[in-house]
Design a protein that fits this description.
The chain contains two helices and six strands; from the N terminus they run βββαβαββ. By secondary structure, it is of the alpha+beta class. It has a six-stranded mixed sheet, covered by helices on one side.
Length: 104
């Protein structure tokens, strides 16, 4: 039951980045990730993509939890995840971790 759903993020017909939803095996959870071109950063596209992928995961795939992470030095990614409704779960020496559940 592994799944990868990659999507392009387009602005005015031009590719601005990509978003992907990964589902690993039989667990009712997935991981979301977003990468944007530098000129598309800071405009809310990442948060919008994460919100859309979470909605798809919960409503269509009936998953229970979506996770995300970013490098500690990338605070902008953290703000995007919080704007998308995810909650900070913790961190280690490399990453900051987030999650959103179907019940949130």
């Amino acid at each position: 039951d592994k799944m990868e759903l990659p999507l392009g993020i387009y602005v005015d017909g031009a590719l601005a980045g990509e978003a992907v939803l990964h589902r690993f095996g039989y667990h009712a959870e997935a991981e979301v990730g977003v990468r944007l071109l530098p000129e598309a950063e800071g405009k809310g596209y990442a948060a919008e993509a994460v919100r859309a992928l979470c909605a798809y995961a919960f409503e269509k795939l009936e998953l229970e939890r979506v996770e995300a992470k970013h490098f500690r030095e990338n605070a902008r990614s953290g703000r995007s995840l919080l704007l998308a409704g995810m909650r900070r779960r913790g961190e280690d020496t490399t990453f900051v971790y987030y999650e959103k559940t179907a019940k949130d």
